[in-house]
Structures are given as structure tokens and as C-alpha cells.
Amino acid sequence: MKLEPYPTARREDTVDILHDTPVPDPYRWLEDPDSPETKGWLLAQAELFGRQRGEQRFKSRIAELLRSGSVGAPAWRGGRHFFSRRTPDQEHAVYYVVEPDGTERALIDPMAIDPSGLTTLDAVQPDKEGRLLAYQISVGGDEESILYVIDVATGTRIEGPIDRCRYSPIAWLPGGEAFYYVRRLPSTEVPENETQFHRRVYLHRVGTSTEDDVMIFGEGLKMTNYYGVSVSRDGRWLQVSAHEGTAPRNDIWVADLTASPLDRPELRVVQEGVDAQVGLVFGRDGRLYVHTDRDASRGRVCVTDPTAPGFETWRDLIPEDPEAVLNDFAILDDLERPVMLVGWTRHAISEITVHDLETGERVGEVPTPGLGSIGSITERPEGGYEAWFGYTDNTTPPTVQRYDARTGETTLWAASPGAVEVPPVRASQVVYRSKDGTDVRMLVISPADDTPRPRPTILYGYGGFGLSMTPGYSASVLAWVEAGGVYAIANLRGGGEEGEDWHRAGMLGNKQNVFDDFHAAAEHLIATGVTTPEQLGISGGSNGGLLVGAALTQRPELYAAVVCSAPLLDMVRYEKFGLGATWNVEYGTAEDPEQFGWLLGYSPYHHVKEAVSYPATLFTVFQSDTRVHPLHAWKMCAALQHSSTGDRPVLLRNETEVGHGARSVSRTVDLSADTLTFLARHTGL
């Protein structure tokens, strides 16, 4: 297809001098989404994308594969249990309750609340008795999370709307009369550019005005802190944790609510000022279970006494494994010999082991359906001999499995409700060597009848925030491979696949390792005959958008096509927009001279060079994204359109009324079809 002229984007002589270094920013004007000039440019980009878009080749197949629907693991409360399910024709999952007699009722249906499909369910938390349900919804992708409470039996709304509850846990007290929760300060009390921050922990009594809420924690601490709060099942123990932004460390406190008032709990330090993460579970046996990566990069479980919970009292129950990362555990105690189930990922593949609860000795393993990913393991809060966990792999839509510790058997408890014909594919894990000699793993999914020959390939990665890329059901991956392509997912440093040390090897001053791992993945795919540079596309979103932005500016000759979604690309100014200020613990801050050097060293927007033949590039952004502002992609798109030579297009797909996270199925299908169509055209699929 012939390249059309790009919409005109004025280049300014804007240059900031930071730490004696000139930093040009020719498209600073695109940071204002409300200016007539920006709006005109976006409209022209939308028209250009519309003309270049072509027929959405994969749309009907992706939609068909998504008709599998989905199902979530149950949360048990008293005789009731709660779960989510999406049937083949639904745009969003619905949240249900099941009564003790097996009667099932829909409690929250986002489409019934808002038939436009723009409302999403962000979080749910039934109270300890299963009589009340707190839930949070947001509209148009803004992730603002308005809180409501309903009566489970009648569906009557008894609380809400309570605003400013984004990322708020709900910690119910027994009896359902009150809960602790996290809420931002009102915008009238904070500077205009800080309204996304300044959280506090409050006690709220159901049926009273939020004006009467009592602040119990957070005053005087960092504005970018996120707080966790929970109350033990018996109502005795309160725990409060604080993370500075997305930092891989937290401070944590506990209070005995039988010894101090609910609205003035006496919080005692469990951990403060330590560079490690800690999570606490108050056991039904009176012990305190500690899940931590302190002195154990891959995680361990310790036990201690909740009345003396300091580090010096912790005793190893499940020690660190040299190869697997400890993610999760559940306790089954209605047995002659109570056990702990421990969930691990070993090189990104999930497994569950069984241990004696008293000694930690390994006594068995939980059968799992295959080599895939396991969601969190849940048990009944009052104890028992059963556990439930979600399971998925590359060809299996989400299922819920039930494990019975009396028989040692795992059985299918619930499958995704839609029957779909999944194409046969072959998945293999390969190990390749990065630039500095580090071994990195990659999952390669190819057609089952794969006669070895170079094929159009998509390489996907993320590499940040300790997030692991594990196998899962993906309609777009299956549609691509069924059409004859290969899809590869690299477990880059910066992720959590090999523990916290692996994460830290790709953050702050080590960020270049992530990009080197990605380039090395591409070189491995080419060297082993899977693909060629002319057939290789790369894809990533959010922090993965930063990844592919760095890849295309550092090694433009290695890639034929790029899909860059909701990306961070101006790393000198990222902290000024969206939730950017909470990520300087991952990337660094431009205010510090050394860290500014790291950021400018790879910031994709600042490394676009004149007269380079860049890969075909599609930016996909979401106008209501309150995490990563679309301006990153807008500025980078303008820079690439100005600089790139050759006949490969640079296009922008700018979507309104949708944000960084959850979206309706039809919008997911549209986005996936556009990105795969673009990658197919420019890799020759």
C-alpha cells in the first residue's frame, strides 16, 4: 500500500536544560489533549488510520475463540459462595451468589447497570458472613472505582456511591456493621496535579455518612503510598501495609482489636524501612503465617506468634526453593494431619505442593491439568479439606479445579461455559542467552503440523514491575498461529518469573538488560530459523509499550513491524502525567542526576533519529487512560512520522471512552483484529 503524506505536526524548538544536559521536546504541544491543534491532529490521524486499516482479517475468528467465556474461582462465606462467569454472548462477566441449596442468582451485571458496555466491575468483597457485598465500578475506562454495598439476599443497595476508592481494599469487621477501606483525600484538600495520590485508611460504619469516617492511618506519610488493609476472620487482628508507589517492598503493622478501639487501633510494627515484601495470614490455629521475600528472593513462608510478630521471631516453615517462586498458599485443617498447599511457578509454569502444616515437610503434590498457570488457591474461611484454584494454559480457557485433601484428587469444578473449537498448536519453552550471558526463557507457540521453515512471528514481552508472563488462553495468539504464524513470549528480566532478584535485574539502572533480553530473543528466533527480520513483528503494552519503543529505536533493522500499546515513551517527563509519580521506584526520577542519565539513555522519544528506515509501527492508545497518558504515543508518533524513511507506515489508533485496563469483549475483539491485521500485513502472513 502506498504511503500517504502524514498529518502536519509542527516542530517546536522547545529544549529543557536538565542537569546541564539539553533535552529537546519538539512535540511538547501534543501534551495538551484539549487544544484545537491537538484535536485537529488526532482527527487527521484517525482518518489516516481509517484509510490504511484495511479489512480486519482475524475479527470473526477472535470473536469465535472468545466465545469460550470465562469462570472465576469461588469465594466461600458461611453457606454461600460467590463467583464470576462470562457466557459466550456476554460483553462482561457477571458476579453471582450461590445459596446453600444451590440456587444461583446474578448480583452484579455491568451490562444491566449500563447497557452501553462502558461500565466495568473493578473489585468485589463479600462480608465475613456472606450477607453484604461491597463492590466497585468505574465508567469509560477511568478506573476511578465508585464503592457501593448491597444486601446479598435482596439486592438492595444500602451504601454508596462512595467516590475516590481506586485500588481500595475492603476489610470487613465481623457482623458486617463496619469496614476499613482506603480513600483518597478530596481534591479540594490537595494540589491540582496531585489528586490521583494522597490515600488514607478509614473506618466506615455501614449506614453512616462518610463525613463521619475516622481516619486511622496514612497522615504525614508519602503522597504516592498505596495501602493494604485486612481483618482476620475472627475479627481480632487488623493489619495495615504501605507500599511506596509500586516499590517491591512494604512496611506492615498489626493491631489487636480486642485490646484497642476500632477507631484508634494500636498498630505495632512488623516490618518498617526494610527492602523486602511481607504478607501476613492469621491462621485458625492461632499462628501467624508470613509470606516474604526477605532473605529469600524466590519467597518463603515463616510462622510466628501474632502477639510478637517481629522479624527476629520468624521461623521457616516452607524455605526458599532455588528454582521455583513461591506465590501463594492455603491451609486445609479438617484432616487428621493438617496440611498447607503451596503454589509455585517453576520457570513460569505453575505447580502446587502439599506440606505438613506443623513441620513444613513436603508430603505430596496436587495434580494439575497440564503445564499452565494457576490462579490463587482458595479454601473455606472456616477451614476444611477442600481447595479451589483457577487453571488455564495456551489451549484451555479458564477453568476452576477442586482439590480434595482426603482423597488427594483434583477434579474439574467449573469450566468456561462456551464450547469452542481450539486449533491444534505446539508450545515449547526454549532457553537462550542474553547479551551479558544470562539465560532467559521464552515460550514459543507454533502450528501443530509445523514443518520447520521461517514464518511470520510475533514476539511479545513485558519485563517490569515483577509481573510474570505465564501460559494462558489467548484468542489472538490462537488466531495468529492457526493462520500459520508463530507467537513467542519472552520471560525477560524485570518480570517475576525467577523471583525478586530477576525483577531487580531489570529495574532502575538495570533497565537496559530488559531491552537486551528482548533483542536476544529476536536474534534467537532468527538464528534458529523460526523467522527472519522481514517476518518479525513485536508487540507490547504499557511497560511493554516502553519495551517495544526502546526495541524499535535501538535495533530498527531487527524488526519489520511494531504494535506499541498504551506505552510510556517520554521517560524524562513520565512522572508528570497519570500515575507516573508512583513508578519512579521502578524506573528512577529525572530529578536525580544519575537516574536522569539512565532514563535519557533509553527514553524512546528522545532516540528517534532523522533519516532512519523504522519498522512499520502502530500505536494503540486509549483516551480515558488515567494510568499512562496517551500523549506518550502521540509525541512519539509525530517524531517517527517526521523522521522515518522508507515505505513502512507509522499509524495511530486512538480509542475513546476506554482506559488502560478492563473493557467489553467487542472492544477487545476490535483492538485485537486491528493489531493482528497490521502485523500480518507487514510480516507477510
Automatic annotation (TrEMBL):
SUPFAM superfamilies on file: alpha/beta-Hydrolases, Peptidase/esterase 'gauge' domain
Catalytic activity: Hydrolysis of Pro-|-Xaa >> Ala-|-Xaa in oligopeptides
All residue ranges annotated as the Peptidase S9 prolyl oligopeptidase catalytic domain in the record: 476-684
Keywords, ordered alphabetically: Hydrolase, Protease, Serine protease
Enzyme class: hydrolase
InterPro entries: AB_hydrolase_fold, Pept_S9_AS, Pept_S9A_N, Peptidase_S9_cat, Peptidase_S9A, Prolyl_oligopep/macrocyclase
Pfam families (alphabetical): Peptidase_S9, Peptidase_S9_N
Keyword Hydrolase: yes
Enzyme Commission designation: 3.4.21.26
Residue ranges occupied by any Peptidase S9A N-terminal domain in the UniProt entry: 7-414
Similarity section: Belongs to the peptidase S9A family.
Name this polypeptide is given: prolyl oligopeptidase
Source organism: Nonomuraea helvata
